[in-house]
Amino acid sequence: MNIKTYILFAFTALAFMACSHIDEDERLIYVKPAAVQRSVLLEDFTGQRCINCPKASDEIKLLQEQYGEDNVIAVSVHSGPLGFHSTPQLVGLSTDTGDEYFNHWQFDYQPVGMINRKGGCEYTTWNTHIREELEKTAPVNINLVVTTEGSQKSVQANVTGVDGNITGKLQLWLTEDNVTAFQMMPDGTRDMNYLHQHVLRAAINGTWGEDISIKEGETSISQIYSLPTSSEWKAEDLSVIAFVYNEQGVHQVVRLKL
């Protein structure tokens, strides 16, 4: 062995010995997950007997045209004293779930909306609140997976921590677009063929969702839930809405059309 080869061998052995004293955990460098743009949940507490509610619906359409319907995710919660439950003669869009939400938040007028569950506000102020929320990043990322077996569809939500540790609730809803039913109009007339959008149909995983705790960089996978069905719903107009919330508000929301 010549002197150069011996020196090279010695340096290699020293380098190997130095590395062997470093714990495996210390060799890994943590990389923070990339920031995720926050979407906004707009809960519109509406009713078919509410003459001003079509104005709020028009505002939602403008907001989604301005920001994108996947950035401003609207859910029409038919409920309260101006909501209407179905009768043999007329289609009603109110649900017991919607009424429970309305009573829980103790609203005293309609239309009224919540932007990321940060208190009720009039539709004329929605744009300001939405713009403020869209400027933030989301501490979690949500990915929805829908599977089909025969005629039955199921959904699962994968929630990944992006910034800090979050403890709260994961909520899954089912909504329907393009629902034809009567609606009282601002001029006092009744439109029997009003086209209702993003109507809340069902809470998939309970009225208030399920407990969830996510650490930064880790993923929490929900149970697999069978989606509720009804002969009155059009499958092509259904969407799953998923969001994570706690007492600080909604941290992220996503929508997936079925």
Question: In this structure, how is the largest beta sheet organized?
Answer: 5 strands, antiparallel
What is the molecular shape? globular
Order of helices and strands: HHEEHEHEEHEEEEEEEEEEEE
Low-confidence spans: 1-20
Any overview of this molecule?
The chain is of the alpha+beta class. Helix content is 22%, strand content 39%. The protein is built from 5 helices and 17 strands. The chain has helices spanning 3-20, 24-27, 53-67, 96-105, 126-134; strands at 36-37, 40-46, 72-78, 112-115, 120-121, 137-138, 140-149, 152-161, 166-176, 179-184, 190-196, 199-203, 210-214, 219-221, 225-226, 238-246, 249-257. Strands 9, 12, 13, 16 and 17 form a 5-stranded antiparallel beta sheet that branches. It has a 4-stranded mixed beta sheet with strand order 3-2-4-5. Strand 10 (179-184) and strand 11 (190-196) form a beta hairpin. The longest helix is centred in the first third of the chain and has 18 residues, at 3-20. The termini are far apart. Residues 1-20 have low confidence and may be disordered.
